Amino acid sequence: MMKGNILVSGGSGYIGSHTCIELINSGYKPIIVDNLSNSDIQSLDRIEEIAGERPEFFEINLCDREALNQIPKSLRIDALIHFAAFKSVNESVADPLMYYHNNLESLVNILRFCTERNIEHLVFSSSCTVYGDAKELPVTEETPLQKASSPYGNTKQISETIILDYLKVHPELNTISLRYFNPAGAHPSAKIGELPRGIPNNLLPYLTQTAVGLRDELKVFGGDYNTKDGSAIRDYIHVSDLAEAHLKAFEFMKSGKMTSNYDLFNLGSGNGYTVLEVIKSYEKVSGEKLPYQIVDRRPGDVEKIWASTEKAEKILGFTPSRGIDDITKSAWEWEKHYRKNIEKSIS
Ligand code: WQD
Question: Which atom of ligand 1 is the closest one to the Cα of 275?
Fold first, then answer.
């Protein structure tokens, strides 16, 4: 029995596509809205291959408010998950206006769209970067926000404020913000995974592209942080765990148990790993050495951050089930599978 239509902005992207698979597996019908600026239309083929259903797709730039009118008013939308945003910390340092325009304009249009189409449930893709260089670790949802360490993190801080202000005059809209830590890894089928356009900003895709020989070596940004081995610490959460958490958040909203029309949750693994520990994990699961070099710190990076997962566990019933070795192994399997298919298709 179909449980409802869920509009998924950014649904052909990395986290969005993995979440669409979980939505289909749980009886929902995802409808993808994406401008394909950081994803590939073939993502829909892979979702269909894995989950047995091809989501309806609208190629829309969410910064163009009129473009959303392409979505028929007759189409019932029970909820909206808003993934679509640029999300590279260091890229936002280099091009702040691109980030402020894209991430904020698209959110404003999404909020207006929710009201125009009487959508009652919104899940917003936020980020641990709102915490900035947190003074207390692990960070909880009550940890005071520091000044964002990058324009990207600032767009997420501002977005959460925009949502809160909007909900004050639109109590009919229930919203949950999910503060992702570091999404990484790939679907266990190895048929779908992170596929950044151009040179990857994120650690795992750069690591796996190095592993398959696409990059000469991984540059480790900073070896002089105040951590066990000098490299920076992050909380890596498997993308399949993250996708499952979206279902938990959505079921919580529908349950009527929300005590107000807004809530927010950290989504992390609760464990912090240094960059060098991630490399060690890859070398363990692959049996291969990874060429890397420690270089200067990267602007916009914080030294260390990891999540308290207590609130999501207690209220959403969400417990991450995959660890760092699952992340590095699945990311590597996906990279090998993808490159093999590319070689096959061009041979
Ligand atoms: C991780 C660590 C780098 C690349 C991410 C997302 C962001 C947000 C927070 C969700 C850092 C180091 C990286 C490389 C390296 N999540 N690194 N060499 O910056 O923590 O941000 O998580 O919203 O959207 O992008 O992730 O993977 O870029 O970096 O040494 O080639 O790996 O310095 O310490 P980041 P990242």
Answer: 32
111 lines ligand 1 (CB under 6 A): no
Write the pLDDT tens digit of every residue in 263-313. Answer: 999 999 999 999 999 999 999 999 999 999 999 999 889 999 999 999 999
- Distance between Cα 300 and ligand 1 center (Å): 10
- Dmax over CA atoms of the chain, in Å, equals 58
Q: For 311-337, write each residue's pLDDT tens digit.
A: 999 999 999 999 999 999 999 999 999
pLDDT of 266 reads 98
The CATH number assigned to the domain holding 252 equals 3.40.50.720
Count up the domains in the chain and report the number: 1
Could you tell me the distance, in angstroms and rounded to a whole number, from the CA of residue 202 to the centre of ligand 1? 5
Burial class (CB in 10 A: 0-12, 13-18, 19+), 255: exposed
Site to substitute for ligand 1 among 202, 218, 231, 276, most atoms within 8 A of C-beta: 202
Closest CA to 265 of 162, 129, 128: 128
* Other beta carbons less than 10 A from residue 141's beta carbon: 16
Domain that residue 295 falls in? 4-346
Residue 185 per-residue DSSP state: -
**What residues of the chain score a pLDDT lower than 70?**
1, 345-347
pLDDT of residue 339: 82
152 in catalytic set: yes
Q: How far is 153 from 131, CA to CA, in rounded Å? A: 8
pLDDT of residue 347: 67
Atom 14 of ligand 1, nearest CA residue = 203
* Beta pairing class for 233-234 and 273-274: antiparallel
